Every structure is written in structure tokens, then in C-alpha cells.
Amino acid sequence: ITQAYLDRIAADDDALGSYLHVDPEAALERAAAIDGAGTAGTGLAGIPVALKDVVVTEGVPTTSGSKILDGWKPPYDATVAARLKAADTVLLGKTNMDEFAMGSSTENSAYRVTRNPWNPERIPGGSSGGSSAAVAAGMAPWAIGTDTGGSIRQPAALTGLVGHKPTYGSVSRYGLIAFSSSLDQAGPMARTVLDAALLHEAIGGHDPLDSTSIDAPMPVLAECARRGAEGDLSGLKVGVVRELGGEGHTDGYEDGVLARVAEAVALLESMGAEVREVSCPAFDLALPAYYLIAPSEASSNLSRFDGVRYGLRVGDDGNRDLDEVMALTREQGFGAEVKRRIILGTYALSSGYYEAYYGQAQKVRTLISRDFSAGFADVDVLVSPTTPTVAFPLGSRVDDPVAMYAADLCTLPASLAGVPAISVPCGLSDGLPVGLQIMAPALADDRCYQVAAALE
Ligand code: GLN
Question: Counting Cβ atoms within 10 Å, is residue 14 exposed (0-12), middle (13-18) or buried (19+)?
């Protein structure tokens, strides 16, 4: 199996640009060792997997899509990587991403452009666009992505995959290169709901190495996916979020996306679900709140990249002092979007502005959580489009950060509230995939899988 995927990568990845690092020899050696141990075929043993390059892997180059980590080989495994290793999976390679996971198209990678296998002139989504393109093109059976504001769900939607952002705290963040620590979550990207559930079960659960890890039993996911596939949703209450593409809130949404989502909702109803509209007024403010909170946390997290501890060091020629070396390293090591976020975040946190920006954004975050609580008092799941549009053309938004940010309109509320959300394919518009997003209360990830499987 590993050889077959490596052949596919060798044949197609020059054109698609999904991977940043593939070591065929190491992968085959590992596959042979698993064959030799005789575990292949039990559980996930022997199945290859691709990891987004934000996941730290022992001895395997890890860049987070940034030049500042060029050449860095981590001395340890992220918990996600360690658990996949313990399950005897084979690491196929590390996938391309927006630098430090900041972006919605993978065009902010410092290394290469990734193309959408459905149409190579279009973006594969982001920031986990290397993972989405690899799985959509058959260059990996499934992959791990990370989602801070939509980076699993949005690329999954734009490439016709299933992508799930777990409940915040239910998958360990230990060894994920931090972007915005109160939002970051790793999760599965796969071709079917059942595959996503199986991969999620392999990486999830409590981890004492992550101080925000929830010490609660993992919900049973694969079983729920199987049950959902039977297509009986009687008794399930579904809320369609008005503020995400509903009446009076269709600005920026494509008709084709709204049509496919409406059809998916009708399908849920035909399987016995009771559908109603739910209003979540604070969702209108999710975008500005996220683009203050995430850069604020990033400005702090990224201070560790100083040219001393990891990867790149610029100007250390014996004639410069430490501050100059740090400044030169950061100037040359970070790309434009990363610098923009650091500047925005530093400003929002600075004394005199803190209350006006960061403080206000935190209040909005609370209001969004309250909207979810009120919604979930009435319905079991909330649904919306995953993205307002289908995959857009390469280059069309790179010079317009605000247009790029708008790609996250539908995914940000669940991120800010920490609740689980899945994107499941619901048809095509103009020949390109559309995703339906299903959101559930914290720790009810199983509900996302169950409803998504019914639609498959
Ligand atoms: N597109 C969003 C951003 O640029 C979300 C990224 C993510 O989820 N990692 O911040």
C-alpha cells in the first residue's frame, strides 16, 4: 500500500505540490518492519498517513511552512504523531501549508504552491491545503490537518473531502507548532466519514502533556458513523443558522453553494430530522473577533522564533550583537502574512489599546458561546455552508487579505466557542465541491459524525 501511494506521489506531486517532505526509503522500511511484525491488517497497522507540516515529527524535517524553520529536525514527536506511530501507521510525508497555518489558500507557504486536484488553476483551501490536495488526488488515503479558524473544514470542503475539527481540548496540542493556542486543534481529513472517525479515534483522548487537554473519555465515533450511514434521523433536531447564509445574510455567498446546502438540509429532513431556523446574532462579529484574538496569541507564540533556538539564523558573523541577529533572522525568516499578524497582534495587546481591541474581541467570543448554548438548548446540531464560495482561482485573493479572511466566515464561530464541527461533501457547483458544516455541543463530536454519515 505504501509503495502504491509513493508511486502516485512520484507521478503527480510535481504538478500538485502537496508535500514538503517525502522520504520513500524511510516509509518503505517502516512498512516492511510492520509487515515483518505481522500486525498489518489489524486496526490501522500498515496504513499510510500524511501529516501537515505543523505536526512535530522526531528526526523528520518540520517547517510549519516557514523559512524560519528551514532545516529544523525536531528531537521529539507530537502526541498526534506518536499515537499514529503507536498504531503502526506509516508516515508518508509532511504536507504543505500556509506559513504557521495563517491563511485560507496555502498560498502563504514559503515553499511552494499547492493546486486543487479538481481544477489546478484553483486553490486547495488552507491552511491545510497540502493535506487536502494529497488526499483528494489519491496521494494519501487520509491526512492530519489542524484547524484554528477553519483550516481543516475549509480545505476539506473545497476538495470534496470530510474534515472534522474536534472539540477544543479533545485532541492533544502537544507538539503542534502553536499559532493561536486557545483555538488550535488537530483533526482528520479523509474521503469518507467512517475513515475520518477511525483516524480521529487514533489521535484523540486525554494527554497529560497538554495542559488544556480534557480528561474525559473519547466519544465512540466510528460506531456512530456506521449508525448514521443507516440514514434514520428520526428525532434529530437540526438548526439552520440564519446568520450563515440565511435570509438577509447572503452577501458574499454563491448561489450554487446555498443551493447545494439547501438540498442537503432537505435530505436530512427526508430522513426524519426536524429542521428549523436558528438565529445566532453574535456570529456576525466572529470574523473581526477572530482576527484580533488569533493574531494576538500568534504575536506571543511566534516570539520563540528568534534565530537562536531553531532553524534559520541570519547575520551571525561575529560583528553583530544578539538583537541585530534576531531582527535580521525574523525579517528574512517570516513571510508577509506572518509579519502582518505579529504587528496586528502586538498592537491589539499593547497597553492603551488592549481593552479596546483584545478585550472587546473576548467579549464577542463569550457572546458567540452564548449563542451556541441557546441554540443547542433547542436543537441537536447546527448546520451551515462550510464556505461561502467554491475554491477560488489561484492568485485572486493574495493581495487582498480581507477577501482572504472572508473565506473563514462560516468556520470561525465553532472555533471561537471550541465546539466540534465537521464538513461533509454535499455536491458540486460549477464542477467544484461544496461542503455542509455540521456543528454540535462540546464533546458531542459523535453527533457530527452520525449526521455527516447519513448524508454520504
Ligand atoms: N484562515 C484562518 C487564518 O488565516 C484560519 C487558519 C487556521 O485555521 N489555521 O487564520
Answer: exposed
Are the C-beta atoms of 126 and 106 separated by less than 8 Å? Answer: yes
DSSP 248-260: T--TT--HHHHHH
**Ligand 1 neighbour 294 (Cβ under 6 A):** yes
Write out the three cell numbers for 314.
Answer: 541570519
Q: Which amino acid is at 326?
A: M
> Which residue stretches of 95-177 are H helix?
129-136, 153-158
Q: How many helices (H) does the chain have, and how many strands (E)?
A: 15, 11
Return the domain boundaries, the chain: 2-226
Q: 3-state DSSP call for residue 190?
A: strand
User: pLDDT averaged over the chain?
Assistant: 97
Mutate to test the pocket of ligand 1, among 105, 189, 386, 408 (most ligand atoms within 8 A of CB): 408
In sign, the C-alpha dihedral spanning 227, 232, 234, 239 is: positive
- Closest-lying ligand 1 atom to the alpha carbon of residue 101: 9
| 369 classed as catalytic | no
Superfamily for the 2-226 domain: Amidase signature (AS) domain (3.90.1300.10)
Neighbours of 256 (CB within 10 A): 17
Q: Is 103 in the pocket of ligand 1 (CB under 6 A)?
A: yes
Q: Indicate whether residue 151 lines ligand 1 (CB < 6 A).
A: yes
Question: How far apart, in whole angstroms, are the C-alpha atoms of residue 196 and residue 70?
Answer: 31
Q: 65: helix, coil or strand?
A: coil
Cα–chain-centroid distance for residue 361? 22
pLDDT, tens digit (0-9, with 9 covering 90-100), for 230-271: 999 999 999 999 999 999 999 999 999 999 999 999 999 999
Q: How far from each other are the two terminal CA atoms of the chain, in whole angstroms?
A: 25
Q: 315-319 contacts: CB < 8 A, separation 24 or more?
A: none
Protein residue with its CA nearest to atom 10 in ligand 1: 102
pLDDT at 40 > cutoff 80: no
Taking residue 305's Cβ as centre, other Cβ atoms within 10 Å add up to: 23
197, amino acid identity: A
